[in-house]
Amino acid sequence: MTDNIFSEIQKELDLGVSEKKHPFKLAVLGTVGLDQMARLRTIVVRKISKDLRVTFYTDKRSKKVTHIKENNKVSMLFYHPEKSIQLKIEGIATLINDAAILKQYWTAVGERSKKDYTTTKAPGTEITNSEGIEYLNETHHFCMIIVEPKKIEYLKLNPDTHTRIRYSNENGKWHGEFLVP
Ligand SMILES: Cc1cc2nc3c(=O)[nH]c(=O)nc-3n(C[C@H](O)[C@H](O)[C@H](O)COP(=O)(O)O)c2cc1C
Known about the structure:
It is a single chain. The protein has one domain (2-124, 131-179): Electron Transport, Fmn-binding Protein, Chain A (Pnp Oxidase, Chain A, Roll). 22% of the residues lie in helices and 40% in strands. It has 181 residues and is an alpha+beta fold. The two termini are 16 Å apart. Strands 1, 2, 3, 4, 5, 6, 7, 8 and 9 form a 9-stranded antiparallel β-sheet that branches. The protein is built from 4 helices and 9 strands; from the N terminus they run H-E-E-E-E-H-E-E-H-H-E-E-E. Flavin mononucleotide binds next to strand 2, strand 4 and helix 2.
């Protein structure tokens, strides 16, 4: 039973990448700030590997990167409103710094989206207004982060009985246990 639901989780996460309007295209990423405050933000899920590693893109000057360098334990939250499914993923984040890999993915980033990684000033820098933002021409600050999931918690709200399952990864194998919702 938990295996069937795990297959459903994999399917929905894959659909999040391939379908434009799928709610799992977006996730809330939680990191631990340098002051130990929980910090949340929305990210776009770019890739889900067969073993459920989640890839997203960011600016390597962003706060989340600073947080991850200090503490690579992160959480991700997904919510599917039509299916009433919430997924919480806890895992280890890795920054991809390999120039060849970054170049390959950077080439595929659309021209409009490239602007997200080429502001002259770092993301989060105070400015007087949004009009005068300047962009770099030759260089960029694009990087990729891969989250390797260690725990996945599934919650499905049903009119009668809710279903909550905690999946843990033990030596590469996922094992699910039902929990009181
Ligand atoms: C719909 C949506 C999608 C976003 N996708 C990304 C993303 O894929 N990568 C990213 O770095 N920021 C993304 N952002 C911006 C982040 O939520 C956040 O504001 C920004 O990255 C700065 O976060 P930080 O200062 O905590 O690092 C997105 C925001 C929204 C509203």
